[in-house]
Design goal:
alpha/beta, Aspartate Aminotransferase, domain 1, Aspartate Aminotransferase, domain 2, four-stranded antiparallel sheet, 14 strands, globular, binds pyridoxal-5'-phosphate, pyridoxal phosphate, PyrdxlP-dep_Trfase
């Protein structure tokens, strides 16, 4: 029997595209992983989470193992709400999700149909692209520079589309702070501008703040905190600051949006994990933890930037990230997808730029390096190995 004949139009269409997660290739153990957007292994609080599980089961017995019933279920939501309020986000309701990714997927499900035009940054986070592509084939992409999304260009494109009677986007997906992959942050002026454009051209904005807590100097004001007209759908995550395997994220948006998301989400929660996370947060000082993360990742960023300065050819350039996990490198005249096998032979991995663009060719001369996962020594060695691979081309 041909099962495909029974598939919905959405999955039939999606299966025509590249398989998800192609950038997560298998690597030998000894390879230095400058490709992985994972937290540093020693910053994953395994002991703290073990204690949290012990305490949870001792205190609550069977409660967190039912569909509902653990009082800590609500406490996790309260913790998230409180933290968002500390970051000047006064409005909106929170829905806890299985990572930011489930939040993005649920938002796509309630806002996107196969005729919806979605605006994305160029480059952008590849998994979000994959999610949106499951629902629509209609995109426009707006370039990012060292100051984030180029809102002037966005305005120009929107105005031109309007003049020509072309459809306008319903959604803009942006990672305004420590963007994946470029590490850049949208300036306050551009944040104001993009909110004005949302009003003027009537679209909603998905603000993905996966890295916003990991600043090395200044904390950016959330787009959602500047939003006066419920235009912003804010998505956050504990993946980069506690542990990605816990799959804890959230959406903060207007109450009717949260209701609609919950309609689709039903009880696809992980009550035990959510209660464990709440128990972990009760017993661990997050402010202290965040300071440690910021300091550690800042040092690792510094190691990566000095290694780039020391070893890269003069044709290479990069942005200096002020937070997050990544450095975005341009190698003029080099196709980074053909460079990758050579780099792997040298013993270092990176993500070729092609994966971050709707039009893969736009990413040809770029690559993303991550300083989060590898040790300081490995970061320096890895960059040197990358330089060797470039030299041998
Ligand atoms: C911009 C961005 N958003 C979301 C995610 C995924 O977050 P989560 O693990 O909470 O689904 C990532 C992870 O790499 C990311 O870079």
């Amino acid at each position: 029997m041909k099962m495909e004949a029974y598939f919905s139009k959405y999955i039939k269409n999606a299966l025509q595209k590249n398989p998800p997660g192609e950038w997560m290739f298998d690597l030998p153990d000894e390879c230095i992983r400058l490709n992985s957007g994972f937290p540093a292994p020693d910053l994953i609080p395994a002991d703290g989470l073990k204690n949290a599980v012990d305490r949870l089961l001792e205190e609550e017995q069977d409660l967190p193992l039912h569909y509902v019933g653990s009082p800590r279920f609500d406490r996790l939501k309260e913790y998230i709400q409180q933290r968002l309020q500390e970051r000047e986000m006064k409005d909106g309701e929170v829905l806890v999700t299985a990572g930011a990714c489930q939040g993005i997927d649920l938002l796509a499900r309630i806002f996107i149909d196969d005729q919806t035009l979605v605006a994305v940054e160029s480059p952008t986070y590849m998994e979000a692209l994959e999610v949106f592509q499951n629902y629509t084939d209609h995109f426009m992409s707006i370039p990012v520079d060292e100051y984030g999304l180029q809102t002037d260009q966005l305005e120009e494109v929107l105005a031109e589309r309007q003049r020509n009677g072309q459809r306008l986007p319903k959604l803009l997906y942006t990672i305004p702070t420590f963007q994946n992959p470029t590490g850049t942050t949208m300036t306050t002026e551009r944040r104001k501008h993009v909110l004005e454009l949302a009003d003027k051209f009537d679209f909603l904005i998905i603000e993905d703040d996966a890295y916003g807590e990991l600043f090395f100097r200044d904390q950016a004001v959330l787009l959602k905190a500047m939003d006066r007209h419920d235009r912003v759908l804010h998505v956050g995550s504990l993946s980069k600051i506690v542990a990605p395997g816990m799959r804890i994220g959230w959406v903060n948006a207007a109450p009717e949006v949260i209701t609609a998301l919950a309609w689709f989400k039903k009880d696809l929660d992980h009550p035990f994990v959510q209660a464990t996370m709440a128990a972990f947060l009760e017993n661990n000082d997050m402010a202290e933890r965040l300071n440690l993360l910021r300091e550690t990742y800042r040092e690792k960023r510094d190691v990566m930037i000095s290694a780039l300065k020391n070893y890269m050819p003069s044709s290479a350039s990069w942005y200096i990230s002020e937070g997050g996990y990544f450095v975005w490198v341009k190698l003029s005249g080099i196709d980074t997808s053909t460079l990758l096998p050579r780099a792997l032979d040298e013993g270092v991995a990176f993500v070729p730029g092609q994966y971050f663009f709707l039009n893969e060719a736009d990413g040809k001369e770029f690559l993303r390096l991550s300083f989060s996962y590898a040790s300081r020594d490995d970061i320096a060695d890895g960059v040197q190995k990358l330089a060797n691979a470039i030299e041998k081309k």
